[in-house]
Amino acid sequence: MHIEELDTPHLLVELNGLEDNLDRYQDYFSKHGIGLRPHIKTHKSLTIAHMQMRRGAIGITCQKLGEAEVMVAGGVDRDVLIPFNIMGRAKLERLTALTRRTTLTVAADSKITIRGLSEATTAAGVSVGVVIELGGAGRCGVETAQLAGELATLADSLPGVELRGVMIMPAPPEIRPFLQECLAQFDAKGLPYPMVSGGSTPAAFTAHEIPELTEFRAGEYPVGGMKHLQLQTHTVAQCAVRVLMTCVSRPTANRAIFDGGSKSLSAALFADEERGSLMGHIIEFPEARFSDASEEHGQVDVSRCDPQPKIGDRVQVIPVHPCPTFNEHDVFAAIRDDRVEALWPVHARGAIR
Amino acid sequence: MHIEELDTPHLLVELNGLEDNLDRYQDYFSKHGIGLRPHIKTHKSLTIAHMQMRRGAIGITCQKLGEAEVMVAGGVDRDVLIPFNIMGRAKLERLTALTRRTTLTVAADSKITIRGLSEATTAAGVSVGVVIELGGAGRCGVETAQLAGELATLADSLPGVELRGVMIMPAPPEIRPFLQECLAQFDAKGLPYPMVSGGSTPAAFTAHEIPELTEFRAGEYPVGGMKHLQLQTHTVAQCAVRVLMTCVSRPTANRAIFDGGSKSLSAALFADEERGSLMGHIIEFPEARFSDASEEHGQVDVSRCDPQPKIGDRVQVIPVHPCPTFNEHDVFAAIRDDRVEALWPVHARGAIR
């Protein structure tokens, strides 16, 4: 099937770019002796997760329990990390069941989370690995080494939880002093840390500058996105995730409207210093400014394009942020050289619980 | 079932607020003799669409053909307007089939669109209604009355398309001069315009200031959102769409992390003049600033809250923009006074084609 036979808008993953990315990131981590633990929250696809495992990934990362259930049920069940505080009766029951199907580790940044995990696993007669989440980037995670040490001591002392170390997000080289300070607390108390887990695709290629890391979580590297184009970790060909769209209106000399908006690309915005806020990069019209979108209309300033897109023209648009883009779609077309090789489900789409 | 039994994050629609909104907007339009044609792109729910029809709606608006197929197949099939330029073989085949199941009107803002419609319907031996889309708001639509007249003349002259009038989006009172100018072109050429369709919830209550309007398309009025809170068309109780979330982390004295992020709320941002960019309004903690989110983490500044949310606290968050929020979910809980009355599917979620 030729790509021209796909109706628009349609989510695409270009397989040459995907495979290139899977290889070069795995090669980097293998070369440096750091475990690569892909974050499946980007693609949400069993198919791509299996490709990652076959290339040497040590296990996977899932942001929510529901994503982990989809992955484990689909055979990606060697070793799963959920870097999230899991709490509440409903989720804890599912978590204890999941420990029987895979090697499971979860993150915690509070005594409440650790005690909840211990009570649930003990009652169920199982055990779960715990890593202490270290903060600093304005999201979750303890912000002092002392608190990291206290939580680690608690996790080490309670039944049903096995202290496995620490995780931090993101992990550029600048976090090393804080990481070392936290691990010194573990050393001082004689606590184990077989897992020291860093993360984020933009910081992936500097992971070796933090020798303490045993593993690295990266999500976006298989497909890239506008941020990766700007950071130059990915070329246009390596930005493998695109949304195929059709130009449906040319209301003025400078404006083109495409049939993909925030329901195809997601509502994520990219703040470009020179061109303002952007919603995507049009491969065929790199001078176009995809400046705004409503749910089904992509609004594009084509004043700098020569030639300009015409009504009926089809284009491929690289999204700002690949993770929410995948979540807008049930299926993507796996393409190579303008042929559709397969239509693959976004298996874990919408697994928010 | 009590709402406390729902796991989080979970999409909610509060039925008292919903029914209040359905009644008061229908009452307004009935009183002024303007047809209300609800836009189902907001809730994407057959259930709510049927409620709207039972209250007196003249038909519905669907932004994409796929949404219209879901609605018509689910019995909301009296009269459907798709305000979008539909083109391409695959969609035109579906469109001609749909004309056999409902009274269908589509928008067009170019000769290419009108000719494509005419060729497809003529080949299939059917006919479709066409309204000329008038622009001016930076999206689709013709921007001169002369072009509106030319397109109307073309639509009137071709087989398989029935010229029905015009549509415009949005339709605050300021558009009236341009609308009149366009209709004067119709009059001058003796062309019919039984449909003069305005739209957008924020402009709904001024529709009567444009006597030319025969009908009005509004999507967000049943559930509101942060914009409607600010405009004061909706109270907190009338903002019927919420995302139920749990506080899962309190990393610092001023920060709380909730288990709902952009995959629950959507990535839409609200630009608040005083408080900067916001992603939602927390009903239980109105002083909180929901300032940022990643896919699964909601980041909230709670420095102005007294008391502050604690780990384990559950809250209801009004999203910025209800339409993409519904699209993140397969199901919503219909609640009333803290009881779950039903779990209803988001039937047309993801219908982007």
Summary?
Two copies of one chain form a homodimer. With 353 residues, chain A is of the alpha/beta class. Chain A contains ten helices and 19 strands.
Question: What are the defining features of this structure?
Answer:
alpha/beta; homodimer; 8-stranded parallel sheet; 353 residues; 10 helices
Structure write-up:
Two copies of one chain form a homodimer. Chain A is of the alpha/beta class. Chain A folds into two domains: 3-10 and 226-345, D-serine dehydratase-like domain (Lyase, Ornithine Decarboxylase, Chain A, domain 1); 32-217, Alanine racemase (TIM Barrel). The first copy, chain A, contains ten helices and 19 strands. Chain A has helices at residues 15-31, 46-54, 65-73, 89-98, 111-124, 145-157, 176-189, 226-231, 262-265, 322-327, and strands spanning 10-14, 35-36, 60-61, 79-82, 103-108, 128-134, 161-168, 195-199, 215-217, 241-249, 255-258, 270-272, 276-278, 280-282, 289-293, 298-301, 314-319, 331-336, 339-345. In chain A, the strands form three sheets. In chain A, strands 1, 10, 11, 14, 15, 16, 17, 18 and 19 form a nine-stranded mixed sheet that branches. An eight-stranded parallel sheet of chain A has the order 2-9-8-7-6-5-4-3. In chain A, β10 (241-249) and β11 (255-258) form a beta hairpin. Chain A starts with 9 loop residues before the first strand and ends in an 8-residue tail after the last strand. Chains A and B meet through β10, α9 and α10 of A and β10, α9 and α10 of B.
